[in-house]
Amino acid sequence: MSEFTTFSALELPEAILRGITELGYDKPTPIQQRAIGPLLAGRDVLGEAQTGTGKTAAFGLPALANIDTTVRGAQLLVVAPTRELAIQVAESIEQMGKFMRGLTVATVYGGAAYGPQIKLLKGGAQVVVGTPGRLMDHINKGTLDLSKLKMSVLDEADEMLNMGFVEDIEFIMESVPKDAQRALFSATMPQQIRKIAQKFLTDSVHVAIEKTQEHKANITQKAWKVTVISKNSALERILETTDYNLALIFVRTRQDTITLSDHLQSKGFKAAGLNGDMNQAQREATVSQLKAGTVRVLVATDVVARGLDVPGVSHVINYDLPNDPESYVHRIGRTGRAGRSGEAILFARPREMHLLRRYERETKGTIEMMEVPTAREMTAYRLEACQKRLADLVANQDLSTMRELVEQMANEGAVDMKDLAAALLFEQQQTRPLFVKDDPKPRREAREVREPRGGDRFDRNARPGKGRNERGAERGSKGPRAAGAAARPAKGRDANIEFDTYRLSVGKDHGARPGDIVGAIANEGNMDSRMIGNIKLHGEHSFVELPKGLPAAIVAKLQRARIRQQPSGMTKV
Ligand code: AMP
């Protein structure tokens, strides 16, 4: 297999070399060094590489070199798992082929109108990049003619399998002409991918980049063991005290991207969620916000994040651990790009700690344990930061008008200036209180400590049925429950509190668990979870006990709160 160290050593058309130069690529990446030669020589290629390694150019450059722009019709077909990836690949190929006269690239994906796509296809686009379902539709409709195809590429094949596209892929590959060259790129090589490769590639060359090359030494890996502090609090504390450019947070489900990003927003972070349920316009808007810096914390699932090429990710936080060590490598590879350093942090529950050694093996790196700041440290941090902000304002901002106002207010209201300053400070710290509530005490050393009530309301991945809340729900017979209801006994609540009962229009049928309710109330009402009494979960509604005489402002806030995406509909009974 011929490898090369400069692009000019390749027999690439002048127009393509110009494109590469304009893109600023001065030397080929390892996957390009290995894949371009065989692809130019007409071989089928099985490429083991992930996004970020330069794999698009690894197949894009040789594919473009083969395209005859005087001929109209699809000559290169790229199948990608998500709209983002399809768009990104198409844009990338368009840039590489910028100086190829007459080159047209069509991007086709679901969720968008057929009309413009058909127009591009009928117009004779030589490069067609698309997602499996929509490509299959176009083939079926006869709007995508593959008879002139020279090369087909399955990009991120493992991800397409994860997303359940196996049949679509098989259909597409069966529609590809026998004599067309084929390439399959995948970040991981599970058995199913090998099978597909065997079925659709002929005498293929397997190119891979060694894990050591993949793993970048400039990524620091850290782990935090989840104990008494909830994952949400830990995340907030890390984000608040860390100097990050862009943080990418990985969660397990689409729903979690929404709940966690909403939560972070409510705490004042510039956060957004990205998931496959969002429509194209929404996803593009998020990506633009990321690029513009108006979003600096992105909460995503593996699937969506894969198709995303956002530069400047300084931190990757594994809020939930991935399903396999290979995905971990993939995730943390989103930072530390282009020679910059990056930090990867993972949250591991005690029972997940054994995975750390596997991640270390896989990355050939070391993961050091870290602590998140305690409540006391956070209080000290906030006080210091606040003092510094105010001192900076005094030093650098013209405050004359404000000073006059303050004097006037003090005189007119006959209030002491110190009291006024204190009131302002009080008001200013409402969303992020200066004094952080004490962390719960570890319960028993040996036992895995469960989240305190009101802790990780979004963490639905905790071992089911074992946390206090869940146990409460399961042992309904011991709690004060009605038939068919799941109750959370009010163990640990303050015995001196008198309660009122409130009805919520959210119940088990909405997927709500006691933890969700406690979490929502504790967070939205800024209330200590010990102030929350019994919870009874029914199908469509539930009951919760809250202290008598709750201030109207808190009640109003709780009425506006959402639990499992449902309006709480809280009313006193
Ligand atoms: P990919 O793995 O194809 O998603 O590429 C990841 C990023 O690397 C993209 O932003 C590419 O533009 C960039 N890239 C690809 N090849 C090279 C190269 N040879 N030199 C520098 N950057 C590259």
Measured between the Cα atoms of the first and last residue, the distance is 76 Å
Helix count? 22
The CATH topology of the largest domain corresponds to Rossmann fold
CATH superfamily of the largest domain: P-loop containing nucleotide triphosphate hydrolases
Return the structural class.
alpha/beta
Radius of gyration: 28 Å
Low-confidence stretches: 444-485
Strand element count:
21
CATH class of the largest domain: Alpha Beta
What's the pLDDT, averaged over the residues?
Answer: 84
Total individual domains: 4
| Bound molecule kinds, no repeats | adenosine monophosphate
Walk me through this protein's architecture.
The chain is elongated and about 85 Å long. α15 crosses α16. The longest helix has 22 residues. The chain has 4 domains: 202 residues, P-loop containing nucleotide triphosphate hydrolases (Rossmann fold, 3-Layer(aba) Sandwich); 160 residues, P-loop containing nucleotide triphosphate hydrolases (Rossmann fold), CATH 3.40.50; 53 residues, no CATH class; 105 residues, Alpha-Beta Plaits. With 573 residues, the chain is α/β, with parallel strands linked by helices. β3, α5 and β4 form a beta-alpha-beta unit. The protein has 22 helices and 21 strands. The strands form 4 sheets. The chain has a 7-stranded parallel beta sheet with strand order 3-4-2-5-6-1-7, with helices on both faces. Adenosine monophosphate (AMP) binds next to α3.
